[in-house]
Amino acid sequence: MAKFKNIYVLFISCFILSCNTHTNTSAHTFSPFAATPIDTKLVEATRFLAGKPLSPSSSLFPLTTDKRYLAYVDELTKSWTRLQQKNLDEIAKWKKQNLPTRYSKTIFYPFSGPDILNAIAFFPDGDEYIMFGLEPCGNIPDPHMVSKERVFSGLWGLRASLNEILNMNFFKTIDMQKEVSTNEFNSMISIIMWFLGQLDYEVINARKIWIDDNSLITTTPPVMKQNKYIPGAEIFFKDNTGYSKRVRYFQINVIDNSLSYYTNFIPHLESYKRYTTIIKSASYLMHNDNKFTKIRDLTLQHSDLILQDDSGVALKFFSPYQWKLTFFGVYTKPVPLFAHRYQPELKEKFDTLSKGTLLFSYGYNSGIGNSNLMLAERVQ
Fold it and tell me: Rounded to the nearest 5°, which phi and psi values hold at 277?
């Protein structure tokens, strides 16, 4: 009898172990956004903007044979191939050798503008990407609903907005504010969609959102002037395995006096718990001792890993008791516009500890061999 009892216990134990293993695997592979409905028109719009093939049954297909569309695609393809494809190939190699394979799936990208490209290049396994900038989100593009002439003027407007990042790998905020439209295809939403389409992700849904007075996401616009709603947009997309992800972009100025008014922003960011943070071409704003302290404190407190160039959080704010720092590339001095942000102590770190030249362009000191990265990993 005891023998059969032992066999029974062993059977039950194996069954439980099998169930637990299955549950863990499912939790690892199940996307939190798996139930997102697919907007087929948005799928087509993204492929159209990105110059990807469309089904002959699509109402947009006839436009893809127009010589103006062919010229648009040819121009963007050349720009992409000239810098970004080479950059992405080198980033993939570097990432494999130098970044941890396990990291928080919430990717935080302060002062990003619409640059989802670099966030995904370095951290492609993220579930969610949180971004913000000064530029308004604009409208969700729908080439199905505008005239043929407006389609082509919109495409060339998008081309103009993409010019800097395709050739230098960063956006200039001043130029973006001049060039980005809220109505045509060069809105911030359109640019994010273009990058996702170019990277062969399938954009399946998008909508306008706001952070309400209680720091929660709503799809209902503010109804009263005293509401302190923060406008944004969220875009859902799938990778080639069918795994769904989300990017959220918010329009906000995060200088301290602004955040003293928009008291709903920091609590909303805190609701995402732990971050993997990437910072690039951030205008050295978090170097400031008394103007961007709230967003810097949030970044340092909620990040377990920070990957940044010298324009991110200044070296002096990283406690050696909390962070392990690794340096890559070269640091000489900031570009002339930010010359006053030179860090002698950072120069010494790079001169003595750098792991070697970066073979891709990153940040203001663009060009192969001119860029720098610091990897900060939390140790306590």
Answer: -115, 135
E-state strands within 330-371: none
Task: Name the residue with tokens 């809220």.
Answer: 182
Residue 335 corresponds to which tokens in the numbers above?
């570009």
Other beta carbons within 10 Å of 73: 16
> DSSP per residue over 33-54, as a string?
TTTPPP-HHHHHHHHHHTT---
Residues 6+ apart with CB under 8 A from 276: 103, 104, 105, 106, 107, 108, 123, 126, 303, 304, 305, 307
C-alpha to C-alpha distance for 138 and 20, rounded to whole angstroms: 46
Matching residue, tokens 């940044």 = 308
- In this prediction, residue 184 has a pLDDT band, given cuts at 50, 70 and 90, of low
Q: Judge whether 179 lies within some domain.
A: yes
Hey, which residues does 207 pair with through a beta bridge?
Answer: 234
Q: Is residue 345 part of a domain?
A: yes
- Tell me the C-alpha distance between 365 and 205, whole Å: 36
Domain count, the chain: 1
Encode pLDDT of 218-254 as tens digits: 999 998 888 999 999 999 999 999 999 999 999 999 9
State the number of CA atoms in the 13 A half-sphere of 119 facing the CB: 31
Calpha distance 157→137 (Å, rounded): 15
With CA atoms as reference, report the closest residue to 131 among 156, 113, 104.
113
State the pLDDT confidence band at 186, using cuts at 50, 70 and 90: confident
Q: What is the extent of the structural domain holding 211?
A: 36-378
**Strand-pair partners of 329:** 372
Note the maximum CA span of the chain.
Answer: 85
